[in-house]
Write a structure and sequence with these properties.
- It is built from 17 helices and 13 strands.
- It is an alpha/beta fold and about 375 residues long.
- The protein has three domains: about 1-40, no CATH class; about 50-155 and about 300-325, Response regulator (Rossmann fold), CATH 3.40.50.2300; about 155-295 and about 330-360, Rossmann fold.
- The strands form four sheets. Strands 2-1-3-4-5-11 form a six-stranded parallel β-sheet. A three-stranded parallel β-sheet has the order 6-8-9, with helices on both faces.
- Helix 13 (about 230-240) crosses helix 14.
- The radius of gyration is 25 Å and the shape is elongated.
- The relative contact order is 0.12.
- Pfam families: LacI, Peripla_BP_3.
- GO terms for molecular function: DNA-binding transcription factor activity; transcription cis-regulatory region binding.
- InterPro entries: HTH_LacI (IPR000843), LacI/GalR-like_sensor (IPR046335), Lambda_DNA-bd_dom_sf (IPR010982), Peripla_BP_I (IPR028082).
- Keywords: DNA-binding, Transcription, Transcription regulation.
- This is Putative HTH-type transcriptional repressor ExuR.
């Protein structure tokens, strides 16, 4: 409708009235609108769209690695499946590894809409939008396409967990996450950075940016985490001239791998360095010490994505929205609540001998290749 309105220099409302055979538009204008609609193929598109909506199948797009290895996205998928079933829909799962190809169920007209779970390229979204079906994206935000997105409040969650560290007495806090990996991680970094701006001092650094760079690892993190390359993470940690008192991590998996690397270097958590995560996955409660993290309502995200898709089917021309779901801090054992009583000097990663935490060496934390603690299923 917007294309027709633009071509004729009319309002979308006038076009809608004419195409739906309602009063309020003159005969001459109505004929003009209908002729232009036929010229632009509107009626054939509308017929195809109605036929697609008659199906009760929702196409789900998800990367293979997310489906196999991610507790986060498996919970999102559970929410999608439950809400779809509750509303009389079936889901058709399609695995994608960034190959820009339209799923067969969409090309064959067997799907009434699409839900993309996790990271997806703007190029792929553009190709999918050409199919004319409603699309909802979960845990990803496109900077190039106008699309409905269901997101956790990443910035607020990271701000809150960083403030928890500050309120507990920590003053030298770094961020551990790959800013080039996804918009969600960038948003979490921005929340951390906003909290750091509230510090009364940046401890000898000329500004917050220098402070952040001095204590953080901001690139090449996610691939190391996905591959469980603790050796590379050890090298990244050793590259920091002066280690912080605490790390805010981009997610729980990153936090778990960072703890392994810190232990390999002889540090104890949280006695020497505190570590906090994000997502509240099963891993966060299984490792030792149990991880302080940010809870994301993963199944609810999936439910909301289905609700939004169904709503969008009958509201094609309404503005697209980013729906932000609230998050909460889950306090566990990976930060030292007595930090206020401890001297706030930083930790020299090279020159200070770290105490040998024998008690932690007996604690169970080793991860297998799936990222789950040994002995857990």
């Amino acid at each position: 409708m917007k294309d027709i309105a633009k071509e004729l220099n009319l309002s979308v409302n006038a076009v809608s009235l004419a195409l739906n055979d309602k009063t309020g538009v003159g005969k001459e204008t109505r004929n003009l609108i209908i002729n232009k609609a036929e010229e632009l193929g509107y009626f054939s598109e509308k017929t195809r769209y109605k036929k697609a909506l008659a199906n009760k199948n929702i196409c789900i797009l998800i990367k293979t690695q997310y489906f196999r290895n991610s507790d986060f996205y498996s919970k999102v998928l559970l929410g999608v499946e439950a809400e779809a079933k509750r509303n009389g829909y079936e889901i058709l799962i399609n695995f994608t590894d960034e190959l820009i190809s339209v799923p067969d169920c969409v090309k064959e007209g067997r799907a009434c809409g699409l839900i993309s779970i996790g990271q997806i390229s703007d190029e792929y979204l553009t190709e999918l939008k050409k199919q004319g079906l409603p699309i909802v994206v979960v845990d990803h935000n496109s900077m190039a396409e106008s699309i409905d997105c269901i997101l956790s409040n990443n910035k607020l969650g990271s701000y809150r967990v960083t403030r928890l560290l500050i309120d507990s007495g920590y003053r030298k806090i770094g961020f551990f996450g790959d800013l080039n990996y996804s918009m969600s991680i960038k948003e979490r970094f921005f929340g951390y950075q906003e909290a750091i701006h509230r510090l009364p001092s940046v401890f000898g650094y000329p500004d917050v940016s220098r402070y952040v760079l001095a204590y953080s690892v901001l690139e090449d993190v996610e691939q190391s985490v996905i591959e469980h390359d603790v050796g590379k993470i050890v090298s990244q940690v050793k590259s920091i001239r002066r280690l912080p008192q605490a790390f805010v991590c981009s997610n729980d998996d990153a936090a778990g791998q960072l703890i392994l690397a810190l232990r390999r270097l002889g540090y104890c958590i949280p006695e020497d360095i505190a570590v906090v995560g994000f997502d509240n996955t099963a891993l966060s409660n299984a490792i030792s010490p149990r991880l302080t993290t940010v809870n994301v309502h993963k199944e609810f995200m999936g439910q909301v994505s289905v609700q939004r898709l169904i709503w969008r089917m009958s509201h094609r021309d309404e503005p697209r929205e980013n729906i932000l779901l609230d998050v909460e801090i889950v306090e566990r054992d990976s930060i030292n609540k007595q930090m206020k009583k401890i001297d706030s000097g930083g930790i020299d990663s090279v020159s200070i001998a770290i105490q040998n935490c024998d008690s932690q060496k007996h604690d169970f934390f080793d991860l297998n290749e799936r990222g789950i603690p040994w002995g857990q299923t």
